[in-house]
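User: Assemble these into one structure.

Assistant: Restating your components, then the assembled model:
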Amino acid sequence: MSDLTDLYQAVILDHNKRPRNRGRVPQATRVASGDNPTCGDNCTVYLQMDGDRIGKIGFDGSGCAISQASASLMTTQLAGKTLAEAEGQFAEFRDIVTTGKEPEEFSEVAAFAGVHAFPARIKCATLSWHAAIDALKKPDSPVEE
Amino acid sequence: MSCDFSNLRLDFPVLDQHVGGHPLVYLDNAATTHKPRAVIDAIARFYERDNSNVHRGLHALSMRATDGYEAARERTAKFINASESAEVVFTSGTTASVNLVAQGWARDNLQPGDVVVCTEMEHHSNMVPWQIVCQQTGATLRYIPVLGENAEGGLDLAAFDELLKEKVKLVAFTHISNTLGTINPAAEICAKAKAAGALTLVDGAQSAGHENVDVQAMDCDFYVFSGHKMAAPTGIGVLYGRKALLDAMSPWQGGGGMISTVAYEGSQWKPSPERFEAGTPNVADAIGLHAAMDYLDSVGRPAIGRHESELAALAYDALSDLPGIRILGPGEGQPRAGLVSFAFEGVHAHDVVTFADQDGVALRGGHHCNQPLMRKLGLPSTTRASFYLYNTPADVDALVASMRRILKFFGVE
């Protein structure tokens, strides 16, 4: 049996309780949202670009501990990244949550390896990442309040 | 009349298993209930001995299958006290029954300016079909508001009186809310609607099989329910409608079994219920439904309803002591059906359900097919524990112990 403590590692609990980069970015130039209609989870990611790199990143939304912690962690991972780099990181993250394989280098994202044993929860973990990639692919434009 | 509920669990084979190393505590009965051995056996017996297509058949098996199918209809009519069995249409479930009325009755009878009234506590299945038919006909859909910040006040019947001053053609409402556990005053709502010249459709998905239902005493025009939420199989449901109404309705689907004559130029329909049962019906599950009704009445529906409400009251009391909990629906001491919906400050319902599952406790977390109500109450989702006849006070204890463990893990308690 997959142990829940694997799923809700300290890292996840911490990011859920004290989310990093929560809230909209005042000078955001790109924004994208995603939702899981079946669970009602939703997530919006705000980006302020610095050239082709993410300058500032923030997220908003509501959902379970996994979706919230994943969004928080995602913002710490993708800050300063280009689209290509972000896609690479997302591919690695998706690999971790779908197979349970731990990353080669130590990283907080390893905490999400436990998600693979709970297939219904994989989409919780990837929701914010999808939104971030969607936002990165958009052209810059003023984000309305 | 009293019944010993502590041993009923033994009648349900699926309950005899462990989940996460714990005996299964199944508290997701508002989503679907389990089937007693008697129902499983009835279905198996049909496939082993009588399986055949119904109607038109002249051989022995076909006649037995037809007899079994029509006996199920008779039994259903008795179960809800319809005045004749021709008022019972078999469908695939509550959703299909509502859609049948929406497309078979409402589409022909609504026009711009007309109003359909439902409630803010409707399941999507008694809301979306009306949205669709209102779009098709230009009619307007209005909602009876739910009162109280935790929906503890039930339906705002004064607001309903105001709504009835408009050109209301139909009032469609749930008898028992699957999200709140609220028991709506069905007869009173039907009487008000009738006085205003409107028809009524009662969603009985959570009431049929949980209490005695008398459609004539309720004085509704349509009553709809599903078998699988009352110990019968999935894929079989019921539309009760007054005979005169059904006979004036258009068919919903065309096909075999629903026509009296067919010519290349056009066809004529049979009266109800055949008019609405095009194609080969779900014979085996209708027979399963029959067995479920016999089983439930052998226990006694009023006793079942009391038992569930007692468990819900126990759960309500014990859960009320937990920190940061918000319980929806009727307050302490108010009538409540056999379910409790709640939310914790700081712990999302999906985390609660995943956690409880590890303790062998099966719950449901989410919007319970009522997104607009969740939005109104300012909740993304809730956790719901719903009881049926095979649950016991020990199941409530397991639920509460699991919730305490979760709160501790998340640092709330």
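The two ends of chain B are 42 Å apart (CA to CA).
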